[in-house]
């Protein structure tokens, strides 16, 4: 579940100044380079410090796609996958040259007849959206006027921003499919009279789509595909799972159920397997989940106030690219936005506290580059794809309240999704987590162990070095982004 309202940050009395102080009970130690590493465990890249030159090498997308160990690897072309020529034209217009690994593996399973349910997992930014959108576009029947106006596929996402984003992928990929219409079903503020849904593809949030079916403005009888994006989030906790189940139960029994996410914790996967019975599955091991192109770092802050000062310092370094700052609560987002704005900085903020139309305006401004810094909560932790994001800041370590232990625990999934807003499809990005006390350090340590990944320390006593490091990474991100577009 979204932990948007979770409070973070422990008592400042037990704050830490050095990570060594916090390391006592944890099964990890700090390496000489200052990275969080697990004792004796095999690591993806040992001993990476800030001086390393990993990012001097400009990696080409075509090289990544030729490397069998890379999530973007594939041996096939989109033509080999048997897609409609009009969809291939749409993909070419989007400059998609080759499928990624998840697309290559998932599409034959998704598009096979008779249709089978599907549960797919792959790392953030590896093209899951295209995988399910291509299946949807391949399965709908646009051969008659009547079918063009009959809902045939429903795609559900946890937030309006993600639903709108998926909608634009449907439009782009299906641009050459004559008669394709799309309905975005997200909450509207003013109580409007519900209009009949006359689009073949519906993308929306589960509450709104469920209401449309219940009020009989969306006829579900011809729906053949149901997709849940961010499926682990949609099927966990309270609220969303009921809404998703309600939608599914109103659809024909023959509907193909398709679930995708970068993360599927075991308990949720078990439920997912019931939600999508007898599904074909593609899954990843926990240690495979982090994306190599995302450089994970942390900063020791002596206090909450120092977090803010470090943020402002960091922001001063950001002359290029866009960044997202994740905080634990709506109140924290509002507070940081207020302080930074009062000091003359241009920042935007998006949380569940603001109304739909305003949310749309903020995310659109961020996508277009008009706003370069976005302060947000977990509401935007998942799925949002803005290729220019070169830096993610976890102002607060993501945590959830565990009702069994009655303690706050690290929110592993949310950490992964948050940092995954950068480093999209082979690009390089930086994710910096602030820790202001022993508790936060312990949580980050647990996250590092959980994913068997390095989280290196940034030395804030040397801001020139911090700047050098971040600029170098961002420069390469830009070079790669340019390459990906030109390719
Ligand atoms: N085959 C491809 N060739 C080039 N670019 C691609 C291809 N497939 C996807 N992309 C691009 O990669 C980016 C990431 O894709 P997408 O948003 O689908 O990732 P995702 O796997 O759903 O990530 P997340 O888990 O964060 O939701 C998008 O900008 C998309 O346009």
TrEMBL record:
<dbReference type="Pfam" id="PF00271">
    <property type="entry name" value="Helicase_C"/>
</dbReference>
<dbReference type="GO" id="GO:0003723">
    <property type="term" value="F:RNA binding"/>
</dbReference>
<keyword id="KW-0378">Hydrolase</keyword>
<keyword id="KW-0509">mRNA transport</keyword>
<dbReference type="GO" id="GO:0015031">
    <property type="term" value="P:protein transport"/>
</dbReference>
<keyword id="KW-0813">Transport</keyword>
<feature type="domain" description="DEAD-box RNA helicase Q">
    <location>
        <begin position="76"/>
        <end position="104"/>
    </location>
</feature>
<dbReference type="GO" id="GO:0031965">
    <property type="term" value="C:nuclear membrane"/>
</dbReference>
<dbReference type="GO" id="GO:0005524">
    <property type="term" value="F:ATP binding"/>
</dbReference>
<dbReference type="GO" id="GO:0005643">
    <property type="term" value="C:nuclear pore"/>
</dbReference>
<dbReference type="InterPro" id="IPR011545">
    <property type="entry name" value="DEAD/DEAH_box_helicase_dom"/>
</dbReference>
<keyword id="KW-0653">Protein transport</keyword>
<dbReference type="InterPro" id="IPR000629">
    <property type="entry name" value="RNA-helicase_DEAD-box_CS"/>
</dbReference>
<feature type="domain" description="Helicase C-terminal">
    <location>
        <begin position="310"/>
        <end position="474"/>
    </location>
</feature>
<keyword id="KW-0906">Nuclear pore complex</keyword>
<dbReference type="InterPro" id="IPR027417">
    <property type="entry name" value="P-loop_NTPase"/>
</dbReference>
<dbReference type="Pfam" id="PF00270">
    <property type="entry name" value="DEAD"/>
</dbReference>
<comment type="subunit">
    <text>Associates with the nuclear pore complex.</text>
</comment>
<feature type="domain" description="Helicase ATP-binding">
    <location>
        <begin position="109"/>
        <end position="282"/>
    </location>
</feature>
<dbReference type="InterPro" id="IPR014014">
    <property type="entry name" value="RNA_helicase_DEAD_Q_motif"/>
</dbReference>
<comment type="similarity">
    <text>Belongs to the DEAD box helicase family. DDX19/DBP5 subfamily.</text>
</comment>
<keyword id="KW-0347">Helicase</keyword>
<keyword id="KW-0811">Translocation</keyword>
<keyword id="KW-0547">Nucleotide-binding</keyword>
<dbReference type="GO" id="GO:0051028">
    <property type="term" value="P:mRNA transport"/>
</dbReference>
<dbReference type="GO" id="GO:0016787">
    <property type="term" value="F:hydrolase activity"/>
</dbReference>
<dbReference type="InterPro" id="IPR001650">
    <property type="entry name" value="Helicase_C-like"/>
</dbReference>
<comment type="function">
    <text>ATP-dependent RNA helicase associated with the nuclear pore complex and essential for mRNA export from the nucleus. May participate in a terminal step of mRNA export through the removal of proteins that accompany mRNA through the nucleopore complex. May also be involved in early transcription.</text>
</comment>
<dbReference type="InterPro" id="IPR014001">
    <property type="entry name" value="Helicase_ATP-bd"/>
</dbReference>
<keyword id="KW-0539">Nucleus</keyword>
<keyword id="KW-0694">RNA-binding</keyword>
<feature type="short sequence motif" description="Q motif">
    <location>
        <begin position="76"/>
        <end position="104"/>
    </location>
</feature>
<feature type="region of interest" description="Disordered">
    <location>
        <begin position="1"/>
        <end position="51"/>
    </location>
</feature>
<protein>
    <recommendedName>
        <fullName>RNA helicase</fullName>
        <ecNumber>3.6.4.13</ecNumber>
    </recommendedName>
</protein>
<keyword id="KW-0067">ATP-binding</keyword>
<dbReference type="GO" id="GO:0003724">
    <property type="term" value="F:RNA helicase activity"/>
</dbReference>
């Amino acid at each position: 579940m979204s932990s948007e309202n979770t409070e973070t940050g422990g008592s400042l009395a037990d704050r830490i100044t050095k990570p060594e102080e916090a390391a006592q009970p944890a099964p990890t130690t700090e390496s000489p380079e200052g990275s969080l590493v697990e004792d004796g465990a095999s690591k993806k890249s040992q001993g990476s410090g800030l001086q390393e030159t990993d990012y001097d090498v400009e990696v080409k997308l075509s090289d990544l796609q030729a490397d069998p160990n890379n999530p973007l690897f594939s041996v096939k072309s989109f033509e080999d996958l048997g897609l409609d020529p009009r969809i291939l034209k749409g993909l070419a217009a989007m400059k998609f040259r080759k499928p990624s690994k998840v697309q290559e593996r998932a599409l034959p399973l998704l598009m096979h007849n008779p249709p089978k349910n599907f549960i797919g997992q792959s790392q953030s930014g590896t093209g899951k959206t295209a995988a399910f959108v291509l299946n949807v576009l391949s399965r709908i029947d646009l051969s008659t006027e009547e079918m063009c106006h009959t809902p045939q596929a429903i795609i559900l996402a946890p937030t309006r921003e993600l639903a709108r984003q998926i909608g634009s992928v449907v439009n782009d990929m299906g641009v050459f499919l004559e008669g394709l219409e799309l309905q975005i079903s997200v909450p509207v503020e003013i109580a409007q009279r519900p209009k009949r849904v006359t689009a073949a593809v519906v993308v929306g949030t589960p509450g709104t789509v469920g209401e449309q079916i219940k009020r009989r403005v969306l006829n579900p009888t011809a729906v053949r595909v149901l997709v849940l994006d961010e499926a682990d989030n949609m099927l966990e906790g309270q609220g969303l799972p009921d809404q998703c189940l309600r939608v599914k139960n109103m659809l024909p029994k023959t509907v193909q159920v398709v679930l995708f996410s970068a993360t599927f914790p075991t308990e949720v996967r078990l439920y997912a397997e019931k939600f999508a019975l007898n599904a074909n599955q593609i899954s990843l091991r926990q240690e495979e989940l982090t994306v190599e192109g995302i450089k994970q770092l942390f900063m020791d802050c002596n206090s909450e106030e120092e977090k803010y000062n470090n943020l402002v310092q960091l922001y001063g370094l950001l002359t290029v690219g866009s960044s997202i700052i994740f905080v634990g609560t709506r109140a924290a987002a509002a507070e940081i936005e207020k302080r930074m704005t009062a000091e003359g900085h241009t920042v935007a903020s998006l949380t569940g506290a603001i109304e739909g139309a305003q949310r749309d305006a903020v995310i659109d401004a961020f996508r277009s580059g008009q706003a370069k810094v976005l302060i947000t909560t977990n509401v935007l932790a998942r799925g949002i794809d803005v290729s220019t994001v070169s830096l993610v800041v976890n102002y607060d370590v993501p945590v959830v309240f565990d009702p069994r232990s009655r303690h706050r625990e690290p929110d592993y999934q949310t950490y992964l999704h948050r940092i995954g807003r950068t480093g999209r499809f082979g690009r390089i990005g930086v994710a910096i987590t602030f820790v202001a006390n022993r508790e936060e350090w312990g949580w980050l340590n647990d996250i590092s162990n959980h994913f068997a990944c390095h989280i290196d320390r940034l030395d804030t006593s040397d801001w020139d070095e911090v700047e050098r490091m971040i600029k170098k990474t961002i420069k390469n991100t830009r070079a790669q982004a340019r390459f990906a577009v030109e390719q």
